[in-house]
Automatic annotation (TrEMBL):
InterPro entries: Cyt_P450, Cyt_P450_B, Cyt_P450_sf. This is Cytochrome P450. SUPFAM superfamilies: Cytochrome P450 (SSF48264). Pfam families: p450. It comes from the Bacteria. Gene3D superfamilies: Cytochrome P450. Belongs to the cytochrome P450 family. Signal peptide: none annotated.
Length: 406
């Protein structure tokens, strides 16, 4: 079994064989202390992950959602509503949920289609192109600007900083690799990253009015929300969360879809048949599961599968494993675009922390694939994909593609 605490265990993609072995033999698995951080428990079976998701009273988010240990001061400085439990978490979600509701996201479909059409046309103008740079990265980036209400001119800069935050373990994204250099100087910054300093400065300019944002965007809405506007440090951390999470996870889901189209040759025909558009996005996202885990902290002693999780222990819910649990999903390592029902846990479903951007991510993936499938008769990968070095967010980082046009 590979060491799940080691980011290098993921440089060739998710170690699915390790997770399959853990589901079978040690579904509640202990990883000892590592790199100065305390050890942690891993939950790898679907049923156990769902049970933990539904019990925030026992499995708390209020001490951090990543493996790393934090002092109380660091936690308070960096936390977003993701790192809170009900009722505090519920109160914040009431402010932000309406902006991400399914009917609201559906209203963006024509905009997404217009953007996707141009993106796909520009990519297909090349005999070969990097599918991540030319397609998977571009659509979520442009939609991020519309959702936030920030100008397109700022998006490349913002996404680069967001990559440095969430990719803080990958030297392709940052020179301040968290497990390779001393990051104590940035302990109060999101992800212990110097990019957090720059994003905080950008957010402060929005707060003090020196940088304008569109009144229709989510940033203006949360600043003006009646009875619970988000301000100060909470706004800065919320901004960093949206910049990082609002781009990367959708990017890696689209990138996985592109990779699968080159590996399972029947998938393109299924898309072109029109029969799977209502189900394909969930299946591509299930297979991708780009957010590999979230951490919880036990608030009491818990017995699971013969193991005793002690109060204060860190517990990782490995969504990427739960979404390939053989007892729930037939042939889980293969994409079946008509899979239904498809109750994967890639969005953290089943508890109070379900992903805000779920409906937007599924719509973006569906639309960009519709535009691509309508223009090609085949897609070939001319090089092996590269993968992010991370046990938190993992996905295809680069992928050279050669399309066959209709």
């Amino acid at each position: 079994m590979k060491n799940l605490a080691d980011h290098d265990s993921f440089v060739d993609g998710v170690p699915h064989a390790t997770f399959a072995q853990m589901r079978r033999d040690v579904p509640v698995h202990w990883t000892p202390d590592h790199g100065g951080d305390r050890g942690f428990w891993s939950l790898t079976r679907y049923a156990d992950i769902m049970a933990a998701q539904k019990d925030p009273g026992t499995f708390s988010s209020a001490q951090g959602i990543r493996i790393e240990d934090q002092s109380r001061e660091e936690y308070l400085a960096r936390r977003t509503f993701q790192e809170t439990d009900p009722p505090e978490h519920t109160a914040t979600r009431r402010i932000v949920n309406p902006a991400f509701a399914k009917p609201v996201m559906a209203g963006f479909e024509q905009l997404i289609r217009d953007l996707a059409r141009d993106i796909v046309d520009e990519a297909l103008a090349h005999a070969e192109f990097d599918g991540v740079e030319h397609i998977a990265k571009r659509l979520p980036m442009l939609m991020l600007g519309r959702i936030l209400g920030v100008p397109d001119a700022d998006l490349d800069w913002l996404v680069e900083r967001g990559d440095a935050l969430i990719g803080n373990t990958d030297p392709d994204f940052t020179t301040t690799v968290i497990d390779k250099v001393n990051t104590d100087a940035y302990a109060m910054m999101p992800f212990r990253s110097p990019a957090g300093v720059e994003l905080y400065d950008y957010a402060q300019q929005i707060l003090d009015g020196s940088r304008a944002v569109d009144d229709a965007g989510i940033l203006a809405r949360v600043l003006q929300a009646e009875g619970g506007a988000i301000h100060g440090q909470d706004f800065k951390n919320f901004f960093c969360l949206l910049v990082a999470a609002g781009n990367d996870t959708t990017r890696y889901s689209i990138a996985m879809a592109l990779w699968l189209l080159t590996q399972q040759k029947d998938l393109l025909g299924q898309l072109q048949s029109g029969a799977v558009w209502d189900t394909c996005a969930d299946e591509f996202i299930r297979v991708a599961s780009p957010t590999l885990h979230f951490r919880r902290t036990a608030t009491r002693d818990v017995e699971m599968h013969g193991q005793t999780i002690r109060e204060g222990d860190k517990v990782l819910m490995w969504f990427v494993s739960g979404s390939r649990d053989e007892t729930v999903f037939d042939d889980p390592n293969t994409a079946h675009l008509d899979r239904s029902p498809n109750r994967h846990v890639a969005f953290g479903q089943g508890g109070p922390h379900v992903c805000l951007g779920m409906w937007l991510a599924k719509l973006e993936l569906k639309v960009v694939l519709q535009e691509l499938a309508s223009r090609i008769s085949g897609l070939e990968a001319t090089s092996a994909p590269t993968w992010t070095r991370s046990n938190f967010i993992c996905g295809v980082k680069s992928l050279t593609l050669r399309p066959k046009l209709k």
